[in-house]
Amino acid sequence: MLGDVAAKIEMGRYFSWRAADYLDKHDQHAELVGAMNKIQVTELMFDCVFKCMQIVGVNSLETKNGFGKILREAAVLPIYDGGNMGMQRRRVHGILADPLFNPRAIMEDEYVEFGKQHETIGTLVG
Asked: Is the separation of the CB atoms in 65 and 59 below 8 Å?
């Protein structure tokens, strides 16, 4: 289980580095990569903390171990700063639903344009 946690941490680290690199290369515009990164890494963090608590067992609930504070912080990140279920997933869905979206763009380091129209593609009543 610790190997799984270590692998997930490395995946999150790589994705964060990749998002930062993409942001640098595209004039600080990485709306798609940034949203995907925020969703995946914040949810990954909660999963990793929970798995570590499972390893420690019931003793992880003792305040001296500090897991309670870490778990609370990990639990709030998916709902903080444009929650994953709302704004972030709507942003990703809007860009992916665009008929002009190139699914290989990020891999090929191409700029993925994000516009106001991407916020409403099939996601809002209107």
From this structure: yes
Note the pTM of the prediction, 2 decimals: 0.80
For residues 111 and 95, the answer to whether their CB atoms sit within 8 Å is no
> Is residue 91 within 8 Å of 124, Cβ to Cβ?
no
37 contacts 58 by C-beta, under 8 angstroms: no
> How many whole angstroms separate alpha carbon 54 and alpha carbon 4?
13
Give domain limits for the chain. Answer: 2-119
Tens-place pLDDT, residues 8-52:
999 999 999 999 999 999 998 888 999 899 999 999 999 999 999
E-strand stretches of 35-83: none
| Mean of pLDDT values over 56-66 | 89
Domain over 2-119 is classified CATH 1.20.140.10 = yes
